[in-house]
Structure prediction request, 510 residues.
Amino acid sequence: MSNRTNEADGKNGKNPYQPVRLAVGPLTETGAVPSNTPMFRWTVEGRREERAFRLLVATRPELLLPGQADQWDTGIVRQWGDPGICARGRVRYAGPALSAGRTYYWKVQIGDDESEMSRFSEAAAFRMTDDLPDAKTAAAARVFGERNDAIYRTTLDSLYSRTTPDGYVPTSVTGAYPGQFVRDTAAHLFALLALADLPEARKVLVSLLDRIEACGAERAPQIMFADGSPPVMLDQPDGHYQLLLAWADYVQLADDRETERKYYPLVRDFAFYYLKAPYFDPKLNLLWNPAYEHARENVHMSVYDLLTNQFAVQALTKVAGVARRLADDETASLLENNAGALQAGIERGLTALDEDCRPVFGELRGRDSADRLLPGFSFVNLAPIPAAVPGAEEKTRNTLQAYERQGSFMWGEFRMLHTYITPNTTNAGAQVIGKGLAWACYFYATSGDWNRLSLLQEWLETYNTVPLFGEAFNFLPFSRGEAYIQDGGNQEQASWFIWAQAQIRRLASE
Prediction:
């Protein structure tokens, strides 16, 4: 997972053009920088194309080398679109917090269509103001700003207003997806639990479980319908285990013993459904998902993926806790043992090393290519965030940093994570998926990375131009930075957004 091409020290880059006229802003009258997320700008004389860049920031000029810059190293960031329209020669700072009154040094190199990187520019310096505002305060102003607050409240209202009195929740308000997707409703339940709306969570949960029981399914369906039509039974263990985890989280938080006892037999049987052949692979200690929905190939993929397995570990662990409360110790032990086996499988089979030999979460292994991880990154690599995996913060941070280096692109002045990226290929376009954006925002808030959170919130208020949070945001390369937004208010993406923002709002208020 390395991108160290032509990076030794920038002196031997094959691209002859060197960035000049380096500038940082905004500036005060005294020439100091008053912003936690300043803008870096540069130009390249005689160049029409700039398809990539790498920028270094350090506390001392002698540290301005790849692998040694102690403040920020963007890695090689790719850019899409028409160079006459899309932003070139600029990026907002998204590194660790800058210190008031301190002087920093920076330089930048650029790349062309052949991915050859130029020599680095000469070093430049900038000084922060002595009264630099607190990064958390600046981020909170974005979170509670008029536009983001409106997106949050309108999206939240949409989730409530589409829910029928008996608890049925259609996935789409635009008609893009018919029916109620079980995976999407699980996300809806996580959002309601984050809001501490336990009565609404019970209504939605009981409604879905009653419908599943009524149809006699042995596992969670993919889609349910309000009119009682037969459910779609596409085999998707990721949604299956997300539902079980939502149930276990609800009964624990609400201390709802009635719902616990009534649905425990169903949940117990569902928990074991996939812990056997052909789904459980005893060599890999991983679960096979026969129909994983992934944007990479726009098909249902047959894979061993991180999202399915990480949610399965958490669901089995939480359901085992319920089993122990109900004195079903035999079931609890079996579930705990299976959760332990799957976690060992994740550590061995869905873990890789980044260019600095740090462990990162791998995305998936194909059923027909289980001997190796699929190269690249996607929102799947971030699954430990929504699954709330204990002790995963450092590995998740490593994963996000590696994802940024290999799978980010410039959307105007903002560096965004692509929905998916395959190394050494040209993706059809640049897209940000809603849940991936929400998960990253939540992680940055909980880990205290307020600068990154602030930038993502600023991007959201700029490009989520519809009233509801979008399913996905597609960069239109020949527009002036506009986005084509898919299925505004999509239940899964909107729910993860509310799940994240509700908790971010609490953290930002503390």
Notes: Confidence is low (pLDDT under 50) at residues 1-12, 82-86. The two ends are 38 Å apart (CA to CA). Residues 138-509 form a domain with the Glycosyltransferase fold (CATH 1.50.10.10).
